[in-house]
Write a structure and sequence with these properties.
14 helices, single chain, two-stranded antiparallel sheet, 301 residues, 4 strands, 6% strand, two-stranded antiparallel ribbon, mainly alpha
Amino acid sequence: MKSIFRIIIIAGSLSSVIACSSAPSHEEIAAEQTPTVKPEPSKAQELSNYKATQIQTSNGVITVQPTVVAPTDELNESLEIASTEYYDPLEFINRPLFSFNHYTYKYVLIPVAKGYKAVIPEPARNSIANAFDNLREPLNLLNNGLSGEFSEAGNNLGRFLINSTVGLLGLFDPASDWFGIEEHPQTIAQTLMKYDVGSGAYIVLPILGQSDLRGTTSVVSESLIHPVTYVFNSPEDTAVRVVDGVDDFSRQSDLYITLFEQAEDPYVYFRNQYIQTMNRDDMAREAAKSEVNIVGERPNE
């Protein structure tokens, strides 16, 4: 098993290096000679007016939903949207880290991601992503089990066994394609949320980006118990995590740049997007708990 994963890591790493050091293509030369056209401001305006908008990326047209994180109860009432005040006491630290991350993405990760996509065809990238998703299934199983989601934990176990064998160490996904076993990813942060642990202050992590205190706890904990730690020896486990990060980032890099350039204040925009996502998760969890309580009530006799 280790030998096969070493081959995947070496292939991915060499591909990125070759792509970054290769001569520019005709398309890249033409792009450099063509004046840069800024994205239409109307897209950002649509988001500012709380309207969904569509953005063209290399992965196709993506619909972006507006962000609504209201700093006051009056704005909540005027929008008729359930929201909570944002909590960002560390903004004086978060903003410099956000800028650091942006320049790291722009001048390091995005060029590497472009080289990765240019050299490795999409089917191969999908197989690499499948392998990393499969490697995470034991962690999903643990978190779903601790959350009391035993049906989802059973799915995690079934997917891991099928994809690790029939799917050739997770390079393919017969669990979904042939057996219809759905994915049920679960993080430690989601498990903590299940037990009503609050998100805490908003935090920008170096390289990793938007998070909060609960999410940071999840990232640190999962880095210590992630299965990759037990499959590979050091420093191979670090190389695997780097390849996994590049593969994941390559799927989001175009959208990130588009949204960054359209936002009037990128820090506030990405912060609000993250917090609004957390708010929606909290509201969904409360709604699910309410449904359980309603179903569990016995009629008056």
